Structure to design on (673 residues):
C-alpha cells in the first residue's frame, strides 16, 4: 500500500497550464511542479513526456510522483506530446522524428527557464520510457540522466507489434488504444472555443495505426528508426532501467546492462506494466525514494551510494500455483554484479520422447509431430499484463493437451534460473509458412502447471527478421530462439516442462494454414540459465512505497472488468472477451467527469485458420456542466491465407449530436506471417 507523505523537504508551487513552443511554432501543453525556492535558487528539471492527457487520464498518477519529486528539490515538467491533451497539432504514429525533435526543444526550454539550473533528466514508463531512451540516444546537451520503466530498445522484436517475427494480437489492442487516445478533444476550460477545431483537426488527420504497422511485417527501416539497439553507443548519459516479470517488457533491462557503456543500474520486480512504487503483483517498492537518490547523484552531484552494490537487482520468484492474478509473488531480491552475470551458467539439456534429459545424455534421433488446435493459447494471458482485469496465464494443462510436451524428472533439489532460456530445435513443417511457440512451466507435484516464460518463432524468419524465407515442406532446419528473460525458482519435487505448439492464438496471430511440425529429438534441446550462487540480499533494502497525496476523484458510476473464455459446441466458435471499463470518475479539482470503456474480442471457428477475428472498441466521454464530448473507435481485423483485412470506424459526438464519422477499409498482403 502506497503511503501518502504530507510533509516534504521543499514547499512547492504548481503551474496548471503552461505553453511550451517548439521549433515549428506548435505549442505543447505542460503542467509544472517545482519548489517555491526555485524562484531564487534554480533546480534541475525532470521531464515526463507522454500522450496520455496530463489534465485527466494520468492526473492521479502524476499527482503522486511529480509533487513528491518537486518536494525534494526538482522542477517536474509533465508534457503531452503534440496532438494529445491540450497540446496543439496532431499525433499520427508513435516515436516519430518530429516527436523526438519536440522533446529536444522542450528540454532546451526547461533548461533556459529562470527556475532551472540548466541540468535536465527524463523519466517515464512505457511510452515515457521509450521517449526518454530514444531522446537520450540523440545526446541533447542538457540531458544528464534518465530513469525508465517498462520500455524496449528494439521496436520490432521486443514490443507489442511482433515477437519472433509473429504478429501479436496486442498489435491491434495497442493500436485501438492509440486510435482512441489520439482522437480525443482538448479541454475547453484550457483552450477555449477553439477546442472543436482542434478536435476536428485531430480526427481528420488520424486513422487506425494498425494499418501502418501491418505494412511493415518484417524488420525494416520503419522499425529500425528509434530502436536504440541499432546503436547503443548513442546513449551517453547514466540510465536507471526497470521492468517487471509479468510485463511484456522484461527483456530490455538485461540488454541495456549488457550493451551500454555508461553508468547504469537495472531493477526487475514481479510487477506487471506498472511503476515499481505502484507495482502489481507485489511487493511494490519505494521507487520514488530511489529516484530521488538517482537524481540527487546525477543532477545535483550528491556523493551518495546509489551506484554501489549490484548492477542488477531482480526478484527471484518462488513457485506459485497457476492463477490469472496475484496480489503478491513470493520470492526474494538477488543481486548480480554485472550482466551477463558470473553467477549464471548455461546448461544444455537434450530433448527425447516426452523428456528433458540430463546434461551430456545421449538421446535417440526420433521424429515427434504436433499439429495444434487453434484453442491452444486461450489461457496464455496478455503479452503485457496490467493485472486488471486478471490477465496472466492460467493452468497450462489444457494448453499442453494440444502441444508436444517434454519434462524433467522430479527435481532432487531446488533449481533457479535467471536469464533467457533458449530452445534449439531440428524441425520441419508441412507448410511453407509456419510458427512454433515454446512455453516453460513449473509443474507442481499435483500436476498443475504454471507458465514461467515463453517465446515464439516465425520459422520463415529463421535467418533473420529482415529476410523471411518460405520453408521447403519436409526439409529439416536447425533453429534456435530465446524465451523471455525471467528469474524463477523450481522447488525440489517439481518438474520443469517445455511445451511446443504450432499455434498460440490469440496471443499470436496463427499461420495462414494449419501446420504439422516435426521435431527431431537428436538435434533438439533446451538451454537453461542456471543461477548457482552470488549475492542474496540487496545492497540497501528498499523502503516501503510512498508518494505525494493524490488528487481527489470520485467514482460516479461503477466500472466492470471481465476476462471470459467461451466455446460454442454448436458452431465451434471459441472466443476470448476482455472488458476494461473504468466507469465514470469525477475529477474534483477541475469538475470533470471522465468515462472510459475498452472492449476486446478474439475469436476463431474450429480449426479454420482463415477464421481468426480480432476486434477492439473504445468509448471515451468527457463532461462538465452542459458540455460533453464522446468518441467511439472500433477496429476489426480478419484474414485469409494471403491477406489481412482491416475495417475501422470513428464517431465523435458533442452532447447527443454526432459531429464526425469516418470509415476505413484496407486489405494488406501477408508477408510470410
Amino acid at each position: 500500500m502506497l503511503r501518502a507523505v504530507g510533509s516534504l523537504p521543499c514547499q512547492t508551487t504548481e503551474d496548471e497550464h503552461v505553453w511550451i513552443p517548439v521549433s515549428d511554432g506548435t505549442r505543447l501543453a505542460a503542467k509544472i511542479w517545482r519548489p517555491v525556492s526555485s524562484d531564487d535558487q534554480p533546480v534541475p528539471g525532470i521531464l515526463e513526456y507522454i500522450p496520455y492527457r496530463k489534465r485527466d487520464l494520468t492526473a492521479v498518477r502524476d499527482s503522486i510522483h511529480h509533487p513528491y519529486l518537486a518536494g525534494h528539490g526538482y522542477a517536474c515538467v509533465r508534457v503531452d506530446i503534440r496532438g494529445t491533451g491540450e497540446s496543439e497539432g496532431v499525433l499520427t504514429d508513435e516515436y516519430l522524428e518530429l516527436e523526438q525533435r519536440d522533446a529536444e526543444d522542450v528540454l532546451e526550454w526547461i533548461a533556459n527557464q529562470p527556475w532551472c539550473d540548466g541540468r535536465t533528466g527524463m523519466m517515464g514508463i512505457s511510452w515515457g520510457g521509450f521517449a526518454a531512451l530514444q531522446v537520450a540516444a540523440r545526446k541533447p546537451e542538457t540531458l544528464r540522466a534518465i530513469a525508465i520503466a517498462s520500455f524496449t530498445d528494439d521496436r520490432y522484436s521486443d514490443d507489442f507489434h511482433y515477437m519472433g517475427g509473429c504478429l501479436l494480437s496486442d498489435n491491434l489492442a495497442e493500436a485501438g488504444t492509440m486510435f482512441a487516445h489520439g482522437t480525443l478533444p482538448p479541454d475547453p476550460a484550457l483552450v477555449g472555443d477553439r477546442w472543436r477545431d482542434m478536435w476536428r483537426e485531430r480526427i481528420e488527420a488520424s486513422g487506425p495505426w494498425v494499418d501502418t504497422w501491418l505494412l511493415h511485417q518484417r524488420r525494416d527501416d520503419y522499425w529500425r528508426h528509434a530502436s536504440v539497439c541499432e546503436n547503443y553507443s548513442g546513449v551517453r548519459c547514466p540510465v536507471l532501467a526497470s521492468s517487471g516479470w509479468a510485463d511484456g517488457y522484461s527483456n530490455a533491462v538485461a540488454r541495456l546492462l549488457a550493451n551500454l557503456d555508461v553508468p547504469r543500474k537495472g531493477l526487475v520486480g514481479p510487477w506487471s506494466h506498472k511503476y515499481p512504487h505502484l507495482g502489481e503483483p507485489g511487493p511494490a517498492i519505494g521507487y520514488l525514494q530511489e529516484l530521488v537518490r538517482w537524481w540527487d547523484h546525477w543532477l545535483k552531484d550528491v556523493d551518495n551510494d546509489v551506484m554501489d552494490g549490484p548492477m542488477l537487482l531482480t526478484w527471484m520468484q518462488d513457485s506459485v500455483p497457476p492463477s490469472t492474478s496475484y496480489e503478491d509473488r513470493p520470492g526474494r531480491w538477488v543481486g548480480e554484479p554485472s550482466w551477463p552475470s558470473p553467477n549464471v551458467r548455461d546448461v544444455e539439456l537434450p530433448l527425447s520422447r516426452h523428456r528433458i534429459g540430463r546434461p551430456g545424455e545421449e538421446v535417440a534421433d526420433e521424429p515427434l509431430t504436433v499439429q495444434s488446435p487453434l484453442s491452444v493459447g486461450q489461457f496464455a494471458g496478455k503479452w503485457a499484463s496490467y493485472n486488471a482485469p486478471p490477465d496472466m496465464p492460467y493452468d497450462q494443462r489444457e494448453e499442453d493437451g494440444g502441444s508436444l510436451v517434454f519434462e524433467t524428472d522430479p527435481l532432487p533439489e531446488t533449481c533457479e534460473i535467471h536469464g533467457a532460456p533458449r530452445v534449439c530445435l531440428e524441425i520441419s513443417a508441412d507448410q511453407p509458412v509456419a510458427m512454433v511457440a515454446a512455453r516453460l512451466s513449473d509443474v507442481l507435484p499435483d500436476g498443475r502447471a504454471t507458465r514461467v516464460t515463453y517465446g515464439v518463432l516465425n520459422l520463415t524468419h529463421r535467418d533473420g527478421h529482415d529476410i523471411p524465407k518460405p520453408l521447403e515442406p519436409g526439409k529439416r532446419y536447425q533453429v534456435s530462439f530465446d524465451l523471455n528473460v525471467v528469474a524463477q525458482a523450481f522447488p525440489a519435487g517439481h518438474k520443469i516442462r517445455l511445451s511446443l505448439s504450432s499455434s498460440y492464438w490469440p496471443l499470436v496471430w496463427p499461420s495462414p494454414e494449419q501446420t504439422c511440425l516435426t521435431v527431431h529429438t537428436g538435434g533438439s534441446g533446451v538451454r537453461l540459465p542456471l543461477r548457482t550462487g552470488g549475492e542474496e540480499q540487496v545492497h540497501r533494502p528498499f523502503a516501503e512505497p510512498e508518494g505525494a497525496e493524490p488528487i481527489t476523484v470520485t467514482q460516479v458510476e461503477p466500472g466492470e472488468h471481465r476476462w471470459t473464455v467461451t466455446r460454442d459446441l454448436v458452431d465451434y466458435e471459441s472466443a476470448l472477451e476482455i472488458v476494461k471499463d473504468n466507469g465514470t470518475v469525477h475529477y474534483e479539482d477541475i469538475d470533470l467527469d471522465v468515462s472510459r470503456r475498452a472492449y476486446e474480442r478474439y475469436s476463431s471457428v474450429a480449426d479454420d485458420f482463415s477464421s481468426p477475428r480480432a476486434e477492439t472498441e473504445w468509448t471515451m466521454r468527457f463532461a462538465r456542466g452542459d458540455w460533453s464530448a464522446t468518441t467511439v473507435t472500433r477496429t476489426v481485423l480478419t484474414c485469409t491465407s494471403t491477406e489481412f483485412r482491416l475495417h475501422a470506424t470513428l464517431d465523435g459526438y458533442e452532447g447527443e449530436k454526432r459531429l464526425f464519422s469516418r470509415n476505413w477499409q484496407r486489405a494488406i498482403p501477408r508477408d510470410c506471417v
In short: The first helix runs from residue 59 to 70. The two ends are 44 Å apart (CA to CA). Residues 629 and 654 are 5 Å apart (CA to CA).
